[in-house]
Amino acid sequence: MAATPRVGFAGPVSQIWLEVGFGGGEHAAALAASNPHAGIIACEVFENGICSLLARLVPEGGEASAKLPDNLRLWDADARTLIRMLPDRCLARLFLMFPDPWPKSRHVKRRFVHPALLPDLARVMCQGAEWRIASDDPTYQEWVAEVLAEQDWFTRPPPARLRPSGWPPTRYEAKAQEAGRTPLYWTLHRASGR
What we know:
single chain, alpha/beta, 28% helix
């Protein structure tokens, strides 16, 4: 599927979208339900998250015969591995919603928003493709701002403080707001000419 992602879907899709670290799966499920034209690859390495998404999609007792929506596929390994296998300019949207902030300095290399990964992301994203990032963690918010300021593959608009229209909510967002943390929402686009 990675080398020719469109053929991995049960029906025709006009765009390929990728969600990295889908957590409980509510965001990926909402994207798939409201965007049947988009082939959505949902990445999650944690079994609990995969089970949570499948529980949303498979009716009780239907485990043996139920199937995923035609426009949704799961990737249960590191998203960076998938990204390195994808063809050039194949993604129209990328979603990174409330990732683990990996706050310790020795864990910085695990952050998905990372200078070393940006060239790979730029390669697989179409010109003008959209990258949505959301985080409620001040350390990660600061990190994203710093990393984006030092690159020219993606536009650098300031983040929004309210979830933009058309963004499905997530349970992590609800937890952050209940705890009094302020999420930030970035909408980046793949820059032209690079």
